Amino acid sequence: YRAWETKKVRTTCPHCGTGCQMNLVVKGNQLVGVEPANGPANRNLLCVKGKFASYKFVGAGDRLTEPLIKRNGIFEPATWDEALTLVADKFSQLKADYGADSLAGFSCSRSVNEDNYVFQKMVRAAFGTNNVDNCARVCHSASVHGLAHTLGSGAMTNPIADITTDVEVILLVGSNPTEAHPVVGAQIRQAIQNGAKVIVVDPRKIDLVKDSALHLQVKAGTNVAFANGMMHVILKEGLADRDFIENRTEGFEELERLVAEYTPEKVAEICHIDAEDLITAARMYAKADKAPIIYCLGVTEHSTGTEGVMSMSNIAMLVGKIGKQGCGVNPLRGQNNVQGACDMGCMPYDFPGYQKVANPEVIEKFEKAWNVSLSSKTGLTSTQVLPAATEGKIKGLYIFGEDPIVTDPDTNHVRKALENLDFFVVQELFMTETAAYADVVLPGISYAEKDGTFTNTERRVQRVRKAVEPRGEAREDYAIFCEVMTRLGYPCHYDSAEEIMEEIAEVIPTFGGITYERLEEEGLQWPCRSKEDSGTPIMHVEEFTRGKGLFMAIPYKKSRELPDDSYPYLMSTGRMLYHYNTRAMTGRTEGINKISNRSYIEINTVDADRLGIEEGDKVTVSSRRGTIETYAAVGDRVFPQEVFMTFHFPDGNVNELTIAEFDDIAIIPEYKVCAVNIAPV
Ligand code: SF4
After folding, report:
1. Are residues 378 and 410 in the same domain?
2. Same domain, 95 and 20
3. β-strand 674-680 against 618-622: which pairing, if any?
4. What is the rounded distance in angstroms from the CA atom of residue 420 to the CA atom of residue 496?
């Protein structure tokens, strides 16, 4: 493009939770490129997804541009009035026949805070139920629960810049930032060049292992044992911060009793690591002054996910590394606005700002604010809604910008659930695998066509700015929800996204000081309670959000499905560098597809030799849920008897194989461990 024919619009990357700032390059009503901008989380860096996959999909020829109604199994174009009236009539009828709790909604962690706020308001105020959730359920709900329980707030404690600059040791657990959060990964590499030592705790030889000081190649599903072993060593060697424990925490005695059992030798056996490496890791982490824990889905996506997260809090509190610069417990959130979708109350037990549905004062507050009577019954998580639909208890479902047919575990159980619904609405940019099951499909708009805010992984609320006009008849997402609400007898209207943020600031105390005007420069990190408050880069400085930090004594439990004679390989899943989740965005970028356009399974050379499989060979992979075909990637990234697949590709969709087993607290799926078999085709 010729620079003089274009304008630049500063906005926030629509992919991962790093929240990189960038300029969309606009020519006429078309996006023609992306340039990095100097944001607090990205310092002028962008990864391949931000730079090359953030604009082509916006103008893709297969965008949905008009409402669709399914008649006799075939989608037909409809007017907005027809489609919205049908949605409202059907949901009203189901509510009258089966009660408000027969309805549910999944909100979109990719869309702006303002849309998420209005979506949950629609489900609560107009549907009349708390059955609302977002995709944090399947990625970091364990962080929301685990950190809130132990520290009082379910969010990253320190800023990205703080945990990658001037640190001595980084304890990186179940996180592959080079591929999943590449700009964070790049900043960790810079930290290594400046002398930081990284301890990688991961079942795979991820790229950062090459530059790390130590790699503990733990068996997938053994994080709790690893953490207990670390704490055993720290206590035995007198490296715990006794003042911090005494003054700022509770529950220590029980923890001390429990971790006494987790000797390095016992933990080495459970985790398949070297006892000496565990001792070295504990010493390195405990002795460093500035040593953050950074973790990701390798900790959360287990049947013990919440316990894994609480274990991360335990380790940091034991050595007093919370509430300080260059320390803390830091989950890297996956989607660009998954933190925001949670903050906005798209969860079945929390109103906006984590204000509890179970608290009568909270109900009273929102009834007054929204001028409506609200349900005080805790709703179902998205992972509970699907089985409830199969059982006929959930009759009507509204999904905004999520694709559970591809993303949820055990695809068959998702198919059964969606097929059993009486009425199903999907609001989307594209005709996704999930939208194909809908009765009505409503065309929403992309991040580049709207104003609003995203909240990145470090709690920083940043602006999203409209760069181009929507395509066809596609409409502003919050305006669609308002139309549905109005037709359901709860009139609702906003003139702008900014007006919604003003309401958010009124009802969420930790957003009290956030205005669009104040977000112009670097955004603001919540809590930001008043116009005088400049936000909170580091949490839990003087005291924890819950008062005292709570140690949790957690015994190690095995994963729900382990390899056996029929399914002898342990399979984990995760993200790769070039693609993002269901590839709705990256899959529409030609250059990226040229580099990576098919699924693959990482398999150790020892296993491949035994099975007669070579690099690039087609193989079948089966579990108790199904069988898929994919291609072998042979090497030593995974341990023998362990395999790894990404979840991005509909051909060889790994979720046909994963197991619908869940953590008991956060109800998060165990994507990281299931048993499979492999055979050459
Ligand atoms: Fe976008 Fe994440 Fe890449 Fe930054 S690191 S450019 S937010 S995908």
Report:
1. yes
2. no
3. antiparallel
4. 37
Work out the average pLDDT over 369-385.
97
Same domain, 408 and 340: yes
* Atom 2 of ligand 1: nearest residue by CA position: 16
CA of 535 to the centre of ligand 1 (A): 23
Tokens encoding 121: 């308001």
207 C-alpha vs ligand 1 centroid, how far in Å?
17
Residue of minimum CA distance from atom 3 in ligand 1: 47
Distance CA 309, CA 321 (A): 15
Residues with CB under 6 A from ligand 1: 13, 15-16, 18-20, 42, 46-47, 49-50, 181-183
Residue nearest to atom 6 of ligand 1 (CA): 50
Q: Please tell me the distance between residue 587's alpha carbon and the centre of ligand 1 in angstroms.
A: 16
| pLDDT more than 90, % of the chain | 87
Q: Ligand 1: distance of its center to the CA of 606 in Å?
A: 35
Please give the structure tokens belonging to residue 292: 């953050």
Q: Is residue 198 part of a domain?
A: yes
Note the pLDDT tens digit of each residue in 102-158.
999 999 999 999 999 999 999 999 999 999 999 888 888 899 999 999 999 999 999
Give the tens place of pLDDT for each residue, 462-489: 999 999 999 999 999 999 999 999 999 9
Of all atoms in ligand 1, which is nearest to the CA of residue 184? 5
Q: What tokens were used for 480? A: 């669609």
Final residue of a structural domain among 287, 302, 332: 332
Domain count along the chain: 4
Domain limit, last residue, from 314, 332, 350: 332
Taking each helix axis from N to C terminus, what angle separates 305-318 and 223-236, rounded to the nearest 10 degrees?
20
CATH number at residue 262: 3.40.228.10
What are the φ/ψ torsions at residue 33 (nearest 5 degrees)? 180, 175
d(CA 382, CA 388): 10
